[in-house]
Design goal:
This protein is an alpha/beta fold. It is 43% helix and 16% strand. It contains twelve helices and 13 strands. Strand 5, helix 4 and strand 6 form a beta-alpha-beta unit. Helix 2 (57-65) packs across helix 3, helix 3 (87-107) packs parallel to helix 4 (146-164) and helix 7 (245-252) runs antiparallel to helix 12 (328-357). Residues 80-85 and 345-358 have low confidence and may be disordered. This is NAD-dependent dehydratase. Residues 5-237 form the NAD-dependent epimerase/dehydratase domain. Pfam families: Epimerase (PF01370).
Length: 358
């Protein structure tokens, strides 16, 4: 008998792709795809069960199909694939849905492996954050709201489940911002804007992981570990290297509009109100302070090596979005010219101030 894998969040783009991918695993006999809404894409030979993980019916699904592996992908920062799409519905699915799912897994005698999709946003975003977050790092302050708070709460419930069911291998994957040709995250929407608002005086460092690498590492975590590796624990998942936000805008060919932080917050609220993009406060913090994580455990313990670097993941995403308002070369030259002018202005201004003091 092969594995019986249950995947939540199957109606979303990433969930649907993983459902189709995991069916090709020779260890897998059956795949049960679960979501509250019908998927807009094909799921191959998987059995789709329309059920809301916020309801107790998920326990019956686990029992009926004797599920031994659960891959929980219904933890998301966007509204795609969620009926209604309101923030309250997203939060309920993330947090209440996870609680119900874990309760069902705890009672199931057949479940032996649990994989949970999380996010590096659990580290928060603050001016005194470390340059690089290891898996063991604790944020200076817990996220105040939004998806980051949801992910932190989800991880707390998962740790409690792991203590109650030590016989279940639990793997939490903290993904950096996911990009690729099919990316449908709030950050992908931001990078697709013709003009990108930025925070004046800040040029944050960003890390990305390619959507194909996400599928590969999810598949690895759902399988039995290879000799010398473990697929239980908490792992940061990101491509090598970092990109500055200014580099991203150049490579996209999209100009930026630097604004004071209060103005960026107001613009973000206005964009959310008209449905242009989910420009949330936590995304503003990311675009202010950035976030970079360490991935040594991903390689040394989990045994996973991403195919794409941060720059390569972004380049693949950029190609799928087409050319921006300006050719990237012109944007780059304009930014460099502005930087030289600012340097000259500062160097000329300092002697005047010193002279005035004398």
């Amino acid at each position: 008998m092969g594995k019986v894998v249950l995947v939540t969040g199957a109606a979303r783009q990433l969930g649907g792709r993983f459902v189709r991918r995991v069916q090709r695993d020779p260890e897998v006999e059956r795949v049960i795809a679960v979501d509250a809404v019908p998927p807009p894409h094909r799921l191959g030979s998987a059995l789709f069960v329309r059920t809301d993980i916020r309801q107790s019916a998920i326990a019956r699904v686990l029992a009926e199909h004797a599920v031994d592996t659960v891959v929980h992908l219904a933890v998301t920062g966007g509204s795609a694939g969620i009926g209604g799409g309101a923030r309250s519905t997203v939060k309920e699915t993330n947090v209440i849905g996870t609680m119900q799912l874990l309760g069902a897994c705890q009672k199931s005698p057949t479940v032996r492996r649990l994989v949970v999709k999380s996010s590096t946003s659990v580290y928060g975003g603050a001016p005194r954050d470390p340059a690089v977050f290891p898996e063991t790092a604790q944020p200076k302050a817990l996220p105040a709201g939004g998806f980051a708070k949801d992910a932190a709460e989800v991880e707390g419930y998962v740790r409690g489940f792991a203590r109650r069911r030590p016989d279940v291998a639990v793997c939490v994957l903290r993904f950096a911002n996911i990009l690729g040709p099919r990316a449908d995250s709030p950050l992908a929407e931001y990078f697709s804007m013709p003009v990108m608002p930025t925070v004046l005086g800040y040029d944050p460092r960003l890390q990305f992981v390619h959507e194909d690498d996400v599928l590969d590492v999810l598949g690895l975590a759902a399988r039995e570990p290879k000799p010398g590796t473990l697929n239980s624990g908490t792992f940061n998942i990101a491509g090598d290297g970092v990109l500055l936000l200014s580099q991203c805008s150049r490579r996209l060919g999209r100009p930026t509009v630097p604004l004071l932080l209060p103005a960026v917050t107001w613009v973000g609220a206005a964009l959310r109100a008209v449905g242009v993009t989910d420009f949330s406060p936590e995304q503003i913090r990311l675009l202010t302070h950035g976030r970079v994580v360490e991935t040594a455990q991903m390689r040394e313990v989990l045994g996973f090596e991403p195919l794409y670097t941060t720059a390569e993941a972004f380049a693949d995403f950029a190609r799928s979005r087409g050319r921006g308002l300006l050719p990237p070369e012109r944007v780059g030259r304009a930014v460099d010219r502005l930087g030289r002018l600012l340097d000259v202005g500062v160097s000329e201004e300092v002697p005047l101030r010193e002279g005035a003091n004398r």
